[in-house]
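User: I'll paste a sequence; please echo it back and then give the predicted structure.

Assistant: Echoing your sequence first, then the prediction.
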Amino acid sequence: MAADVRVLDALAAASELGPFFALDTDLPPATSADGAPTWRPFSDLTDDHDVTRARIAAIRTGIAERGGLPLEEVPPRAAASLAHLGLASRLISPVLGAALLRGVVPDLRGLWWRDVLGPVPLTLPHPGGTEVAGDDPVAVADALSAQWAAGPVAALTTAIAAAGGVSSRLLWGNVASAAAGAVKMLTAASPQHGAVALAVGNRLVAQAPLDGAGTFTGPAFRRSTCCLYYQVPGGGYCGDCVLLGRQTPTDSRGGGATSGR
């Protein structure tokens, strides 16, 4: 295990890449002074289907309010997929950033979260991690794949599939999309790491659990499934959607769905 100081440094470096890469390390307070939802163990979300369903319902309501839509016009399965996509992005980005910038893969066991919309606040008290050669895309990708297959990413995917009625294949496509988005954001924020980041992305989608979930063509990524955002009235298609090319030009969106991501 890497020394805590190395993990703290790695997470601090990753957080400078943007809000999706931020992972705090403070102890979560027992109460919320601002009246917002309190901090909870992330395992509550993955192990308690009532909590999972409540998160999906909150995302569905948020989509409806933001789009000025009646709630019944937002398909529940689309809301479940978008809830998963937003959370997957938050789990993946800080770990990818820490691995590439500082050669440390943080261990996400013991993670806490707050159930709010937007980039979900996360904290990891007393973080540990594993050292990895940050300039070796094979080593980084293999370490990330192993963590995703057995850690909170897999647990979240299983929980959303069960509670939201969405296929696991579609949800692993969300993970691939989130990983590709993190690669793109990291490259834009830290161009010197771009070549290694892209090589990591290619390696990730060539092996379990993301094999078959999408492909890179140069820096561009196209997933093999759809996140279902197009089913939301006015939603359109994400920039990496498998359905691109079937829509009218005014339907296309330049990036991923924004409801919880």
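The chain has a mean pLDDT of 91. The two ends are 30 Å apart (CA to CA).
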